[in-house]
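assembly run, all chains below
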Amino acid sequence: MSLLDYFRSSKKNTASTAKERLQIIVAHERRRRTSPDYLPQLERDILEVIRKYVDIADDQVSVTLEKSSDELSVLELNVTFPEDKRG
Amino acid sequence: MSLLDYFRSSKKNTASTAKERLQIIVAHERRRRTSPDYLPQLERDILEVIRKYVDIADDQVSVTLEKSSDELSVLELNVTFPEDKRG
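ok done. output:
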């Protein structure tokens, strides 16, 4: 399955809610367990960068940080905009 | 399939190459076709932010911007680090 298919299928689930959404995923695969894990700081920086383009209130963002092992971390940021916010 | 599963399966493919990888995906689902598409600028900004934490040469980055429709855009940034780059 391609990534585009992944998001297309997740789009279906919310098709009726008429919202604008922005989803950011950062996957960090480390070869050595000792290499630094900078995902938490990166999360804050990326949010700041997005705020240059759109207004995001803190309650519009949900953040998930998953670790499947010491070597793979996946950070997920979901931003949902109210329907009449844009346009 | 969860996102973590997605990345776990893509990790398998490169398990033998012993590299560190960073993958950033930005999916933007717009409700109105007229709302601005800021992904190209966001791409540059995110790369700049990552460079605060790691050195990235231009040839270590591959960028894909896919549009499945006017309403869904998926930006993918793949960064591969040389094996002995990190200590």
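The first strand of chain A starts at residue 20 and ends at 29.

The mean pLDDT of chain A is 77.

not gonna interpret more than that til we talk
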